[in-house]
Design brief:
CATH class of the largest domain: Alpha Beta
Shape: globular
Largest sheet: 7 strands, parallel
CATH topology of the largest domain: TIM Barrel
């Protein structure tokens, strides 16, 4: 398939409140769109959501928030220039060809020779999605199951009828709001730890925060776990400097009676901290550090017991490779969010719906927090091809996936009028 025309555009979406993680705060999120047209006149429009702070905190710190977003957007545009007039056999081969070049370009324009690989992958999500949609049109594919190449199918062979909808509780979410979420049926919540400050300040704040949360919701019950208790999902985004500091946090969790409810501790350490983690007594998950399938394998060999997949942050093409590696090594996966728009939630949901459950849980897992964080979420939902479909909405803490959902694949193959108009 040959790409003849490319184009791109973006929208800036403000957040309800400053969004805190990795010791910083973001105030808006850029929604990117990439357009690819082939030599048959068919086109695909892929979407992306940029997160400079998540993908490389050093860039977020060095530049203004808008400046960092502009640099990432420039990398998407560079990727589109690379694929123009090029022929490719599959989206995965296309990504393999261009992302190292886009990463190198990014190192130049950010003046950062250590730019993280996820920064380039995040930049290319919209292009990769457009390539998958164009590939689907070429092959006459209109179902996500048929889109998955044969060698990746074993890792995505499950079929959930319910997926836990995971909200995100960042640093500044009030305890009362967390209690209301539990009352509304949410039972698996992602809680940010690794607060701003030095290691000691961070540790003391985290201990107090988790103690307050556990006091508020620790006694709640759920039918979706084998022990009937709410599971805790802590995300440190690499803020803990070493295992000893994390052990002190975990010891405090034991002291307050919260330890046995910890299901996942995600990305506690900086990427360069390459210590074995299988002696901590909890399931440690890799996220940012698992840039690629090779990085995921390295983390698995270091004792990481789960991988957070992010088709909406690292591209679907790279996510399929990571999922395959995890599956071959009997390491479970789940899908984490990047505070993406409603259509990208469906791309992530298609992956989450097909992953085997984390041990101890009865459902699939899908983090989605856009409804908590975007000021214009209701308007953004209207861009979805099926905004009123029941499978787009959380009901008592879960997404219910019926035959209609699987038939429509969450609507990802259906054109969105809003994004089509961006390229008229």
């Amino acid at each position: 398939m040959k790409v003849l025309e490319t184009n791109s555009n973006f929208e800036r979406e403000p957040l309800v409140r400053p969004f805190g993680f990795k010791g910083g705060y973001m105030h808006e999120s850029w929604q990117t769109a990439a357009y690819l047209q082939n030599d048959s006149g068919e086109h695909g429009i892929g979407l992306g959501t940029q997160s400079v702070l998540w993908s490389d905190a050093a860039v977020f710190t060095q530049y203004s928030e808008s400046g960092g977003n502009a640099l990432m957007y420039a990398m998407l545009e560079h990727g589109l220039q690379l694929v123009k007039n090029q022929t490719f056999d599959s989206p995965t081969s296309l990504l393999d060809e261009i992302w190292p070049k886009v990463l190198q370009y990014g190192k130049t324009i950010t003046n950062n020779s250590r730019l993280r690989e996820t920064f380039a992958l995040n930049a290319l999500v919209a292009l990769d999605n457009a390539a998958w949609l164009l590939y689907a049109k070429e092959k006459g594919i209109s179902n996500f199951d048929d889109l998955i190449p044969e060698k990746y199918k074993p890792a995505l062979s499950h079929r959930h009828h319910k997926i836990a909808s995971i909200p995100l509780m960042s640093y500044n979410i009030p305890i009362e709001e967390i209690k209301r979420a539990v009352e509304d049926g949410y039972f698996f919540m992602k809680i940010k730890i690794g607060s701003p400050g030095d290691a000691q300040q961070m540790l003391e704040w985290d201990k107090a925060r988790i103690e307050a949360i556990h006091k508020a919701i620790g006694g709640a019950e759920t039918p979706y776990t084998k022990n009937g208790k709410l599971p805790y999902y802590f995300d440190a985004n690499g803020r803990y400097p070493d295992k000893e500091t994390l052990r002190r946090f975990l010891d405090h969790c034991k002291k307050i009676g919260a330890f046995e409810q910890i299901a996942i501790v995600e990305e506690p350490f900086p990427e360069e901290y390459e210590e074995n983690v299988d002696d901590l007594g909890v399931r440690i998950a890799a996220d940012e550090s698992a840039h690629t399938d090779k990085d995921a394998l390295k983390r698995i060999q270091m004792g990481y017991g789960a991988i957070a997949l992010k088709a909406i942050a690292k591209t679907l093409s790279m996510t399929l490779k990571i999922a395959k590696t995890a599956h071959e090594n009997d390491v479970p996966c789940f899908c984490a969010d990047l505070t993406v728009n409603p259509i990208l939630v469906e791309w992530n949901k298609n992956v989450a719906a097909r992953l085997a459950p984390i041990p101890g849980l009865e459902t699939g897992l899908l983090e989605t927090n856009g409804h908590q964080n975007y000021r214009n979420w209701k308007t953004m939902r209207s861009y979805h091809p099926f905004p009123q479909a029941k499978w787009t909405k959380t009901r008592k803490g879960v997404f219910e996936l019926d035959a209609d959902y699987y038939e429509k694949s969450g609507g990802i193959f259906r054109a969105s009028t809003h994004y089509e108009k961006m390229f008229e």
